[in-house]
Structure formats: C-alpha cells, structure tokens
Amino acid sequence: MKKILRILFSSITGCIIYFLCDFLYTSYLEPTNFFWNIPEELDYLVMVIIILLVIILIYITISSFFVELLLKKLKDLEEIFTNMTLKEITMNVVGVCVGLVISNLLGIAVLQYGLIGSLIVVALNIIFGYLGYQVVQRKKDEVKMLGVNESSIAKPKVLDTSVIIDGRILDILKTGLVEGKIVIPTFVLEELRHIADSSDALKRNRGRRGLDILNEIQKQLKIPVEIVEIDYKDIAEVDSKLLKVAQEMDAIIVTNDYNLNKVADFQGVFVFNINELANAVKPVVLPGEDMEVTVIKDGKENGQGVAYLNDGTMIVVEGGKDYIGETIKVLVTSVLQTAAGRMIFTKTNGDKTSE
Q1: CA distances in angstroms from 7 to 4, 49, 65, 344, listed in the order given
Q2: CA 110, CA 48: separation in Å to the nearest integer?
Q3: Nearby residues of 20 by Cβ (< 8 Å), 6 or more positions away
Q4: Which distant-in-sequence residues (6+ apart) come within 8 Å of 263 by Cβ?
Q5: Total number of domains constituting the chain
Q6: Nearest to 165 by CA among 103, 207, 108, 220
Q7: What tens digit of pLDDT does each residue of 3-50 get?
Q8: Is 301 inside any structural domain?
Q9: What global pTM score does this model have?
Q10: Are residues 297 and 267 part of one domain?
Q11: What does DSSP assign to residue 152?
Q12: CA 96 to chain centre
C-alpha cells in the first residue's frame, strides 16, 4: 500500500512540475532559449526526460516521508470522524460547503487571469472552506439544524454499567416516563462482557444480569435502543468516556453512581440518578411521627438498634439494642437525606406491638 502511494505521490508531483514547465515553455519562453546549445527538435524531449528523472528522484528521496505523513493524517482524520456524531458531521459539512460557495463567488472575478487566477481560486477554496469549518466548530452549540427547536426534542439517554447491572432501569423504562432513545456505547458492553467473564462468581452473575437486562430492554420495550460504535483510546476510565460521549451527543447520563453524578455536575453534564428518583418516591417521614419497625440488629453506637423499611431505608433506633427481633413503636427524631440514600433516626418509647 505504501509503495503504491509513493508511486502515486511521485507521479502526481512530477506531472505538476511537468505542466508548470510546459506552461512556461509554451507561453513565456522561446523554444531555443529553454535548453541552450541543444537542437530545437530535441529541446522538448530533453525536458520530458528531466521530468521523469525528477519523478524518480522524488520517489527515492522524499516520497516515503510524505506518504508516512499522509497516512498519519488520514488516521487522525478517521479518528476524528469516528468520534463525531451524525449531527456534528452534518454541521461541519454544511459549514465547509457554505465556505466553498462564498470562495467560488469571489473567485469568478479572478478566473480571467489564467493560471494565476486558477491558483487564487484554489487558495480561496482552501481558506474559506477552513473558515466555514472553524465557524461551525465554535458556534455548534448555537446552530439550529433545519430550523428544529432542540428544546422540544428529548435528549438521548446514555446508560452506564452500574445502572444496567442494578436492573431498576428496566422497570423505569416500562413506565414510559423516560423519553428519547437509549444509547449504549460499545465500551459499556465490553465492560459488561468482561464482568460476565470474571472468575469471581458474584461479579460473573452481576455481569450476566446486566446483559439480560439489556436484552429485555431491546425485546420488550418500544423505546429505540442504539449501540454506538465509539471509543476513546486516549481515555482509560469508563466514567470519563461516558462523560465524553454525553458531551458530544448532548445526552443525559443515566446512573446510580454517586461519584460519577458529582463529576458530571461539575462538568455541566446532565445526569438522571435513579437513586434520587427512588428517594423522591419514598413515603415522606417527618420528625415527631410514630412508626412501627422490627429491630433486626445492633447499630454502631452503644445501645443502638437497626431496622429497615420495605424499600430498604435504614432506620437507626436509639435504645433499640434490647429489642432485637421484636417489633416496636418508635418516634422519628430526624431524617438524613443524601444523593446516596436516606436514613431515619428514631428513639424507642418501649412499647411493643401485639403480634
């Protein structure tokens, strides 16, 4: 492949040199003045031979360097386009096309000047095409595609590994409250596959559960699910890749990872935390209310007992250690609410409930 490209590069460069020399030879120089002391009938033949020698010289000397540079740039360009969304590619193409239209309109005035005019038009195309691309890159957040109001379109939801393994996302999607397509990056699938292949039985079961949840989302729900072939080789952490995908796709990350939630908030990425949703729909408990709980174990502090509500909310019972295994009435003293969950602090009044 490289050898073919070197031959093409050398030939194209040699042809350009040939046409330039031929243009100068036929337009500005007298045939007898191009090569001195050579018969006129051999003058043109000598020029062709020299051009062939130049092509060979270019192939031997600099073609390898330029081909390596070209391949590197093509690889970088492929990486850029691979990491772009369809919307970004469309916007960039439109920007370049607008720049080319403007440059060609300006170039009409200089086309009459022959070769010089043609070179000016080429230069204008390069300059204005690049300017069109740069303007779109800097103003892409303000561009409205085809006059569509983006605020009226549901943003895609990018699922992270933790929320897939958790499984509650399936029930949430079944309610129909979540709008927009579901996006699963390939690196999330790869992480799930790696967990499912783990030698640790617990991790293996979690990974397989996550894959089962994805299959159920695709088969049972009418919500569009898109597997995005995207990766960032320069980024090692999956969470960082998720943030990058969400930024490029203007998407919302669905997670129950508290740390990812905080980092996303800091970077201005919208997050849908299902733990926060679960906390929001839990029954409200106010200080001063009475409730019945079953103390199941002792707490960290001396004399404390621990109980749980049906939704998993932890209840700390002051003086509840003596009532382990019993159902008692307690008085709510305070409620601690965080993004990671909720804790209810109570104290016992010593009253047992009847069985």
Answers
A1: 5, 17, 13, 77
A2: 31
A3: none
A4: 239, 243
A5: 4
A6: 207
A7: 676 667 677 776 777 676 666 666 555 544 444 555 655 666 766 777
A8: yes
A9: 0.49
A10: no
A11: G
A12: 23
